[in-house]
Design goal:
Layout: H1 9-14, E1 21-24, E2 30-32, H2 40-48, E3 52-55, E4 63-65, E5 70-72
Antiparallel strand pairs: 1-2, 1-3, 3-4, 4-5
Length: 75
Amino acid sequence: MTPSANGCEDCLAIGDLWVHLRLCLTCGHVGCCDSSKNRHATKHYRSAGHPVVSSLEPGEEWAWCYVDQVALAPA
């Protein structure tokens, strides 16, 4: 999946900062994690219904399913 931006797409649009990045595995949207004040990855899930994100952090290889609230092992 190709990331939609080089940072949190929504934070970049409003000139804000983020903590960690998450990649939507359905559409490639890049959002910030729930440790970030805007929580754009979760907001994307709630608005778009895309259930699985993966980490975009260097050295991290995991995914999260919002529907089942479980971490998924890397493929």
